[in-house]
Each structure stands twice: as structure tokens, then as C-alpha cells.
Amino acid sequence: MTAAPGMATATVAGPAEQACCRFQQTLRRPVVVSGRGYWSGEANRVELRPASLGSGIVFVRDDLGGLRVPATLSWRVEASSRTNLQAGPATVEMVEHLLSSLAGLGIDCCEVGLTAAELPGLDGSAAAFVDAIEQAGIATLDQRIEPLIVTAPITIAEPGSVARIEAVPPTTSGLTVSYDLDYPGRPIPPQRFETAITPQRYRSELAAARTFLPEEDARRLQAAGRGLTVSTGDLLVFGPDGPIGNTLRWPEECARHKVLDVVGDLALAGRPIWADVRASRSGHRLNAALVAAVLAADRNKPSLPATGGTAKPEGGGDG
């Protein structure tokens, strides 16, 4: 995995930008979503709770006496085909769909109580989480967000592969994501989707896009004892002639779901990222690497002197 040298920069919004930034948001009241994890099959009761100003998104393992796992990159651990977090003995698995729904609807502060490690797979999309957030209602907090604004291109590429993801300065005040999906030799057709991430567009264009995989991958997982409670009605399983026992909600539903995943993984920055993000065959690992590069660029941004003069680089680590 490589990043383009000497090009990665980002900044926190200054006073002018902050004047047009929205206020932080949380939920008005608690709300519950229940279901079984795709990988483990374990039942999980997920309670989304209001949280205080500046607290961010934090998972709470209610079944482990309230152990807390912040939803930030520092706590991410490597996992296959999903995004997992761990703080001490407490793990939280497959967090990307919930984080995506929270970010997509502009929820900055939320406590997420869990009774098991893996979040429910539901129908493979974020729709149930979005419905729950809307049922709970959204409350405004008394402080504006501080977005990370990408000011020069950042590119992350997988050596020896066409997989890549890049962030360039935003063309809107916020995040836009495009995804090019092409798996030669697989039954999933090439497709592309792009959208600006606003609550309205997230609800109508992304929330219902479902997880997908080829039939051979599904069979291999179940042979290894994974996903034994999941059927072809619970997500998109592609055979030679298309989805098995299911129908697409959009022709490019798979690319839409990949955009949904990118939004969830970028939420690990802990603050909204403002950029135009373009991805091609990128997965959770590359998405996380882009978050790391954006955060490193922010740490190394020039510090503006308080009373005029020339900006000088900050000291400290190189990220």
C-alpha cells in the first residue's frame, strides 16, 4: 500500500469556513435495532443513545460491564471484508454500516450500546439504522463541527493492483464519493456510482444498498463455519445469471454499497472529511489508509501565527 509522496495535506476549517459549518448533532432519545451478526450468527441488541458535545461515536459493550470502544482509527484492527475495532478485551465487529448511517445523517455524537461483538447484518444495508435514527430524532448541540478539509491530492494505492482510493480538494462544502467497481471474471457487472453525501441523498441513494458477494465466496465462508444463519434473501449473492433469490434495487446497487462502505470507513477520522473521494476496487483496508493519510496531513499542517507573519510548519510526528 503506497501513498503519493509530498502531496497529502489537509486542514481544519478556519473561522471563515466554520461560520458556514453546521452544529454538532446527536439523537433526541434512545432507539433500538436488533438482529444477528452475519459472521457469528449471534443476536445483538444495539441501542443508539444521545451523547454529549464533543464525545464522538463510542461503542459500549453492555454485556461486558460497559467497556467502551471509541469509533476512531486508533482502535481499528485488521479483519477480512469488514471493519472491526478493539479496545483492550472489548471488540466491536462489522461497524461500517452503522458508522455510515450516522455519518450520512450528520450524527456526530452517539453512544452505541451492544450486547454482543458483531453488529447485526440486517438486510445487508444501512436502511434499518437510518430508520432508527429518524425515529429517535436529531438534536443540535452548541458547538460547530470542525471538518478536515483536504487541500491537496492524497492517493493510496495497492502495489501490484488496480485498487486505489484518492481524496482531492472538495468541490462542495462536504464530502462527495465516487466508486468504480470492476471484477473481471466475476458475475458482478462493471458499474460506477457517485454522489454528494448529504442526509437527503444518503437516505434516498445509499441507505438501502446491500452487501454483495459472489456465490463461490458465500459457499467458502459457510464451509468455514461463517454466515451459517444467512440466506440469499439477507444480502446479494451473485451467481452466473445475477443475484440468487433476490432482485437488485438499482442496476448499480453494488457500487452504491461500496460508496456506503467508504462513508462508514471515513467516519473513523472522528470528524467529517470534506473532500472529493474517488475509489476503484478499494476495500476497508485502503479506505482506512486514506483516513490515516488525511489525519497525518492534518497533524503536519502549517500552523498559522496568531498575529500575522509567515506560516511555519508544525513540529511533531510525521504520522
Give a brief description.
With 319 residues, this protein is α+β, with helices and mostly antiparallel strands.
CATH-defined topology of the largest domain? lpxc deacetylase, domain 1
Largest sheet: 8 strands, mixed
Tally of distinct domains: 2
Radius of gyration: 19 Å
Would you identify the regions where 5 or more consecutive residues have pLDDT less than 50? 12-19, 306-319
Polypeptide structure, described:
This protein is an alpha+beta fold and 319 residues long. It has two domains: 1-21 and 147-210 and 249-301, lpxc deacetylase, domain 1 (2-Layer Sandwich); 22-144, 2-Layer Sandwich (Ribosomal Protein S5, domain 2), CATH 3.30.230.20. It has helices spanning 15-18, 96-104, 127-136, 199-206, 215-223, 253-266, 284-299; strands at 2-3, 9-12, 23-27, 31-36, 43-50, 57-61, 67-70, 76-77, 84-87, 90-92, 110-114, 138-144, 148-152, 154-157, 164-168, 175-181, 191-196, 212-214, 236-239, 242-243, 273-280, 302-303, 312-313. Strands 1, 2, 13, 14, 15, 16, 17 and 21 form an eight-stranded mixed beta sheet that branches. The relative contact order is 0.20.
